[in-house]
Known about the structure:
- It is a single chain.
- The protein is mainly alpha-helical.
- It is 57% helix and 2% strand.
- The chain has helices at 14-26, 29-48, 55-64, 80-94, 99-110, 123-137, 146-155, 161-173, 186-192, 201-206, and strands at residues 4-5, 8-9.
- Strands 1-2 form a two-stranded antiparallel sheet.
- Strand 1 and strand 2 (8-9) form a beta hairpin.
- The protein is globular, with a radius of gyration of 18 Å.
Amino acid sequence: MNDVIAGVEIPDTTLVREATELVRDVAPPLLYDHSRRVFLWGSLRGREQRLAFDPELLYVGAMFHDLGLTKRVRRTDQRFEIDGADEARRFLHAHGVTGEPADRVWTSIALHTTPEIPLHMAPEVALVTRGVELDVLGIGYHAVSDEERAAVVAAHPRPDFKNRILAAFTEGIEDRPDTTFGNIKADVLAHYVPGFRRIDFVEVVKNSDWPE
């Protein structure tokens, strides 16, 4: 029997079940519950906006979107979003999902911290961002009903979530500060890592090798 939360059906497929197991193994409960909520919020926002989306692809995008913060997946030479996107594409390829659908999931994860642009792309790309924005920033909080919100949080609680997710962001990116250039995650390091100094776009332009 399919799991239904706040009227959203979790797809009962091998792909979804194995994605769930992988994320449970790799990510701490904080990120697991957050990622499940992202799928649920994204689905609810998609329903509200009457978007036609593939629930399996949205699920994988939501579940893998923060895997780049985990010790098993993260690297130090690229943005954490790309770590998660690469892992999702490998997972999809291993399950026979290739080409444009796999690239769509990759894009949904790679761009989920890039404001505005994902909202003008494919529904799955837009809805991963919608789900993240609702869960982390509260954007769209009133676009879902009180009853829907209560049902999602009952299934996947968020105790002290604001502080705990900021700590997870910090831990996941503090050893690769330069990857936050042009990225909203620079704000996290500015608040929580002593001595962090942003790369300044204007300084990069002025100090480039071009003579003028």
